[in-house]
Amino acid sequence: MNYRRLGKSGLQVSELSFGSWVTFGSQLDVEKGKACMYAAYDAGVNFFDNAEAYARGESETIMGKILANSGWRRDSYVVSSKVFFGSTQERKPNQTGLSRKHVVEACHQALERLQVDYLDLYFCHRPDENTPIEETVRAMTDLIQQGKVLYWGTSEWSAQQIMEAHGVARQHNLVPPTMEQPQYNMLHRYRVEEEYRRLYSEIGLGTTIWSPLASGLLTGKYNDGIPEDSRLNLPDYEWLRDRLVGDEGKANLAKVKELGKLAAELNTNLPRLALAWCLRNPNVSTVITGASRVDQVKDNMGAVDVAMQLTDEVMEKIENILGNSPREQ
Q1: Average pLDDT of the segment spanning 266-272
Q2: How many Å is the maximal CA-CA distance in the chain?
Q3: CA distance 307 to 317
Q4: Which residues are catalytic?
Q5: How far apart are CA 87 and CA 168, in angstroms?
Q6: Are 161 and 129 in contact (CB under 8 A)?
Q7: What stretch of H or E contains 79?
């Protein structure tokens, strides 16, 4: 495993990390989740990603039980939470959003569920149009000064919103966001490659990218239809199913089949190729992987070796298949 700095910070994160979205609480219980997390940790993963909204808090509860009984030194791993969507189904006023009240209370709840004294990373899961950015920046700064959070960041914020947060922090001597968690994969590129392009050099933005396999599309498992055990058949994932059956989905499936052929030429598989492609971007601090089985975890870790096979020539072949470079659109 290789390790990269989280943007301009001194924090080092494994270039492949492990996240619990979709799986913990819906597909995995404590024992199965433990097996996957242990496999990732043994492979060198040191960053474990979570959020208050995942399985309405149950994901953090499961991860907390695993961490508490792992015997791992606290300084050997990095754990995150995210705030915005809330962890309750009822979602009454102040149980969601980025107000000082919810940011602080959600942090305390995450600490309790994860059974840790502090969060290494704390993300604003989405921008909140109803809360001034200064209020959120001040709340995050206070949590950092109290030792409850080490670094804070954003997820799916625009470049303009991130820069506004930095401007507020500079103006009022507060702590600016360190990292952003955007979606990034072969089929979803513009924000990471183009919109944020200047932020990497100007403010040293780090990225913890999610959905590197495009919600499973880049595994090739949907090439011949939707399997019965797919997440697309889970409640609340109709949006993902709809994305696959439209014209864009069909075009993407054609690209996936060509990418699968290229992966075979490299003596690897499509998931490892897709993860390795993300790793080739120097502005990616860590690629968040997910898995519901130990064998998937181990297979994903092989992307580290595949990344070394992706020469400029291979990357050009991939680009020709994708045909979606943001620079050329």
Answers
A1: 97
A2: 55
A3: 15
A4: 54
A5: 28
A6: no
A7: strand 78-83
Residue pointed to by tokens 């604003």? 124
Q: Which domains does the chain have, with CATH numbers?
A: 3-328 (3.20.20.100)
Report the amino acid identity of residue 304: V
Q: Which of 299, 271, 294, 298 is nearest to 33 (CA)?
A: 294
Closest by CA to 270, choosing from 287, 252, 257, 254, is 257
What are the tokens at 71?
A: 């015997």
pLDDT digits (tens, 9 = 90+) for 57-81: 999 999 999 999 999 999 999 999 9
Return the exposure string of 80-91: e unless at least 16 CB atoms fall within 10 Å of the residue's CB, then b. bbbbbbbbeeee
- Interatomic CA distance for residues 278 and 4, integer angstroms: 14
pLDDT tens column, 4-32:
999 999 999 999 999 999 888 888 899 99
Tokens matching residue 48: 């474990």
Q: Which residue is listed with tokens 């990034």?
A: 184
* Chain segment 135-152, per-residue pLDDT in tens: 999 999 999 999 999 999
Closest CA to 58 of 33, 34, 91, 87: 87
Residue found by looking up tokens 């980025």 in the block? 98
CA–CA separation, 273 and 132 (whole Å): 41
Least confident of 57-71, 132-146, 190-204, 207-221: 207-221
Phi, psi of 80 (to 5 degrees): -125, 165
Strand, coil or helix: what is 328?
Answer: helix
pLDDT in tens, 157-173: 999 999 999 999 999 99
What span, in angstroms and rounded, lies between the C-alpha atoms of 137 and 115? 25
Q: What is the pLDDT of residue 90?
A: 85
Picking from 62, 53, 52, the residue whose alpha carbon sits closest to that of residue 24 is: 62
Assign 251 a pLDDT band (cuts: 50, 70, 90): confident
